[in-house]
Design brief:
The protein is mainly alpha-helical and 302 residues long. The protein has 10 helices and no strands.
């Protein structure tokens, strides 16, 4: 991972490639930017920087996804992600580096442990591939820079929350409160929102769902919302600001009502609201400004 960071971080800090991708795939083959161009001697000779950088980011994203698998597996159970090292859940044999290469190792092992042939869930390569695609897509959307780092971390946390909430109706504090701390810290990054907006968004996000949960509990005479959802919206507010928190809540509620509420009524299953709040936050991050502008100009007329 250190070698990939040594490639990415200097470029992110300098911001010299921040305009390379102004839309999906635009600028990937920019003339004059190749092996002898801006990053000469760093990327593969003969490969344009845009293509090579996408490959580096994809591999980096897959590695992040591999670690996310550990978090998703251990945090809900109250286990450490540091020790013990990764091991087979069947025979407890530690996993060697060659069997821990994201996506590739699972394919080479045919989805089974090398030592005991215990099936390895397909969720592991799926999460690694999804995270790689997330980081690659964000690079195509934002280019290399601090915005990519911030959005990549944010989306990775949202993916982890969606998985744990869908599987166990649980949002670990490591995702929500840890993400809240990261969101506030990244507000100091160049080109991001102000720390004031991040703090205001966190406070507003927490307050909105706390008041909603308290009112719902009083009305229904039973808990109406989990504390994890409340802390999650605080985290979302730290990354997206106050209006971002409001829009994420609105969109998450809308998507949840359309997709899952009918199922919940029939099956009496509780709604994993963190999943839909994550969807709302993703939409807000990518298209929130356009949605707000459309609402203001086309619907309100000013």
């Amino acid at each position: 991972m250190t070698s990939f960071l040594s490639i990415l971080l200097p470029v992110m800090v300098s911001g010299r490639l921040s305009g390379l991708f102004r839309g999906p795939f635009s600028g990937l083959m920019s003339p004059g930017i190749g092996s002898a161009g801006l990053l000469s001697g760093v990327l593969v000779p003969g490969v344009p920087v845009g293509i090579a950088a996408l490959g580096v980011v994809a591999v980096f994203g897959a590695m992040i996804g591999s670690f996310l698998n550990v978090c998703v597996c251990r945090w809900p159970a109250g286990e450490s992600v540091v020790r013990p090292r990764s091991h087979c859940r069947g025979c407890q044999t530690p996993i060697s580096w060659r069997d821990n290469i994201p996506v590739v190792s699972w394919l080479l092992l045919a989805g089974r442990c090398r030592s005991c042939s215990t099936p390895i869930p397909a969720r592991y390569p799926a999460v690694e591939l999804a995270t790689a695609l997330i980081w690659t897509g964000l690079m195509m959307h934002y280019g290399l820079g601090w915005r990519l780092l911030t959005a990549g971390i944010f989306f990775t946390i949202l993916l982890g929350i969606a998985i744990t909430d869908a599987a166990a109706y649980l949002i670990p504090d490591e995702f929500s409160l840890g993400g809240l701390a990261l969101g506030l810290l990244l507000a100091f990054a160049p080109g991001g929102m102000t720390i004031r907006s991040a703090v205001t968004g966190a406070v507003l996000g927490f307050s909105l769902l706390y008041v909603t949960a308290a009112a719902g509990e009083k009305l229904l005479k039973k808990p109406a919302m989990g504390g994890g959802d409340i802390k999650m919206l605080a985290m979302v507010g730290a990354f997206l600001g106050p209006w971002g928190a409001v829009l994420s809540l609105f969109l998450g509620s809308l998507v949840g009502s359309i997709v899952f509420l009918p199922v919940s009524f029939r099956s009496r299953r509780p709604v994993p609201f963190g999943v839909f709040l994550a969807v709302g936050a993703v939409i807000t991050e990518l298209w929130g400004a356009g949605l707000m502008e459309w609402y203001r100009t086309d619907l309100l007329g000013f």
